[in-house]
Prior knowledge:
By secondary structure, the chain is of the alpha/beta class.
Amino acid sequence: MKFAFVIFKYFPFGGAQRDMMRIAQESVKRGHSVHILTLSWEGPAPEHGVAMEVLQGRGWMNHQRYRDFIAQVREKISGGAFDLVVGFNRLPGLDAYFAADPCFLERSHQRRNPLHRLSGRHRFFAACERAVFAPESGCEILLLSPAEKAAFQRWHHTPEARFHLIPPVLLPERLQLGDRAQIRASVREEFGFAEHDRILLLVGSGFKTKGLDRAMQGLSSLPESLRHKTRLVAVGQDNPGDFERMARKMRLAPQVRICGGRSDIPRLMQGSDLLVHPAYRENTGLVLLEAMACGLPVLASDVCGYAPHVLDSGAGLLVKSPFMQGEFNRLLQEMLDADATGWRGRGLDYAKILMAQNDGSAEVRLLEVFAKERGAR
């Protein structure tokens, strides 16, 4: 079969982008071909069997470029050139959508000024979401978080039968465990930390959404004796300027390291003491599960789609909604003071169960079914 994958922007460290490449590679393994259509591409070209085409969208504003890009995509996919068109962003003309993002209308009405809903940007993204989720749409939805289904149905009345829940994916080759003591020493040497310093790790593109400000406030709140030996490392694809200024203003600059995206996240996880993920919103939060698979305890906000796994596994603690900074500060100190052995072991055991449930092929098997049904219509 021939699949078209559509995504607005590709960069190597984005969650949806990583999922797209994983699904593309698995599709090739199963004998299919994949053609990726995108507005921009960062990083190495895809491997053999996966083609990539960059379409230059025209317009002054992002949503105008997206609109032009969509028009070009519609032309490319017309005439039955592909057995299935799969979107990793919401746009018209899709046969299937990988639901990596939360409901746009729900978030817009909860968090935005009403005047924002009069903007061209809002109208564009709302129309894209309706094109995917409206009752009359034939688009199948690969759902990552059951929590988001209610929001989509509340706003769009999407039929139940079009949702297909995907078990989380943890790939063993990304999560090879090494000698923890050796890795801890090498990570501390790399960042210039002392041997017995405690490391808080925050991972994710979009530091504001992931709650880096909350993590810094938590670090600042620690008792002096604990604060002086605790370091915060933030890794992700984002502009660090505002947070570096915040660290200086809070007198935390020597204790905070903000890095760009990196490919050695499992190593950093094995060399750290606690994953902090006090996100403002997070559709899934695969990083929580990856931390478990690396034996790293987790402290997260309960808005993350995968947050229930933290409780089910006993691999960490959650800050309940509505988020209270004081509660995060209290739990942060509690986890840093505690023996982490139990959290580490339970996380590792739970990750093995998740790996057995989805070996990375669940999405492609569904795409094959969708393509066959589409061909039969």
